[in-house]
Amino acid sequence: MRIRRSAAFAAPVLALTLFATACGGGGGEEDEGGNDTPTLADIANSDVNPQERDALQDGGTLNWAVSDFITQFNSYHTDGNLGVNLDILQALMPRAHNFDDTGAATPNTNYVEESSVSDDGSTVTFKLNPDAKWSNGEPITWEDYAATVETMSGRADGDFNMGTKAGYGDISKVEEGADEYEVVFTFDTPYAEWQGLFDVLYPAEYMEDPEKFNEGYLEDIPVTAGPFKLDEIDKTTQRVTVVRDDNWWGEPAKLDRITYATYESDAMAGVFVNDEIDAFYVGYDAPSYERAQEREDARIARAIDNGYRYIEMNAGRGPLADLDVRHAVMLGIDRSALAKASLEGVDWPSDPTVNRLIRSNQPSFQDNSGDLGQRDVERAAQLLDEAGWTQEAEGETRVNADGEKLSLTYVVPSGLQTTQSEAEITQQMLGEIGIEVKIESVPSTAFFTDYIYTGNFDMSSFVQVGTTPFAGESYENYGGPFNDDEEDWGNNNGRTSTPEINEKYAEMVRTTDLDRYYEIANEIDTLLWENGQGIPFFQRTGIWAVQEDLANFGANGMASVIYEDIGYMKE
């Protein structure tokens, strides 16, 4: 998945403990045993133990367990496309807008005092905070925004190893407004998702120069502008530590420091119980969910999450290049059974209803899978027969006219039993229709870089996580090819799309009528099912384990993390 906005994660990083603390709307259902089970409508928008700043201690350390050790801290760089990167960078770097847990945007007044759009949608104006400064003492001005647009639009000269244009290419002109603290963006056509741009801002010099773009934030974060600043990147222990920046002009950070400590996912619950960490994303790993409950001061936070779990199919090589084969694989898998097996042991709805562009707490959320979302082994077998993959006897692997077996490699990261189980269930299901599935376990540290990003797989399962509530950011995962290059699939790990999908994304992000916007989003999701672009099987579990007196942190859902407000409650 190479591009920056929708970040990829291997299996929901561990599962936790305790019980959900909040729910809202909708009613539960009774399972076969007569017990109430939660539905997606029962899950809260956020669950962060919200507290006013004066109720918090001054000082303390948040030890945050993460699953990836970051080396490329330029989030616009193709190698900077991991969710952990934004968890670190948004404590240190500017972002133009914040989002609440419904997805509504407001200017992040630490950097942008006001933002507005013209009636015709062609002009967006940011009034910048004149107190905002980079850690090198330079003011944050319109030129920093202009440099980002120039590079990310593809207009800058040089070899920038970056992702797709993602809205920046729609900006035809950036100008200084009344002074250096006002920036005016002119769009060729209205761009409905403008508030999602500049989720991380870098100094102009690191965006204008290809060498600084590619290497300036490699294994370093040289210039910051946030409530925290970099203290240390420790390659040996795989920890990144940030500390309160006393030069920050906003409300001072309540915490002294945040340590992002890298652990294998199956180790996080243990170190949490041993009080070595204070928070980690649990996901749906049942053993970890149970283990985390052993800590007396644990709080299990649960909220709608901006992501979904799915099986990726690589159409860039082998049998899956054939749409009929991809459809057969989709029809050969029981998504409900896979979701129930994956979510067994955690308090989360095993509902396979997934929309790639819209979450269950957003308008017009619906299932667009149609017939392709239900298991149908007879139709799957028929498609495989028509595609030239025949089966001589029941139970045997299908072969083509050249005697080649219909065999697919399912790559899983080591240390994640949940992913291994998903692969084994898929192996059994597809075996019933004559598709051989070979499971290859690879080091978790190399899973994305050496396998998913490079296309060295046929199938795998992981999570797509949006960094804003906007549907258009998923274009980088499902559109393409990019940059007028038939080989450039950027962040699209499935390596397939259609002109209609690309055109629909372009129409959606230019649609300012909200009803029509979501209507197009559902049309796109339907097209993705029809083109066999992955197999979603549940909305990502927004389950976290956190120390109970930690406030303003946990399951944020759609909401932005306000890092300066994280802290521990007074006794």
Automatic annotation (TrEMBL):
<protein>
    <submittedName>
        <fullName>Peptide/nickel transport system substrate-binding protein</fullName>
    </submittedName>
</protein>
<dbReference type="GO" id="GO:0043190">
    <property type="term" value="C:ATP-binding cassette (ABC) transporter complex"/>
</dbReference>
<dbReference type="Pfam" id="PF00496">
    <property type="entry name" value="SBP_bac_5"/>
</dbReference>
<dbReference type="InterPro" id="IPR039424">
    <property type="entry name" value="SBP_5"/>
</dbReference>
<dbReference type="GO" id="GO:0015833">
    <property type="term" value="P:peptide transport"/>
</dbReference>
<dbReference type="GO" id="GO:0042597">
    <property type="term" value="C:periplasmic space"/>
</dbReference>
<dbReference type="InterPro" id="IPR000914">
    <property type="entry name" value="SBP_5_dom"/>
</dbReference>
<dbReference type="GO" id="GO:1904680">
    <property type="term" value="F:peptide transmembrane transporter activity"/>
</dbReference>
<feature type="signal peptide">
    <location>
        <begin position="1"/>
        <end position="22"/>
    </location>
</feature>
<feature type="domain" description="Solute-binding protein family 5">
    <location>
        <begin position="112"/>
        <end position="483"/>
    </location>
</feature>
<dbReference type="InterPro" id="IPR030678">
    <property type="entry name" value="Peptide/Ni-bd"/>
</dbReference>
<keyword id="KW-0732">Signal</keyword>
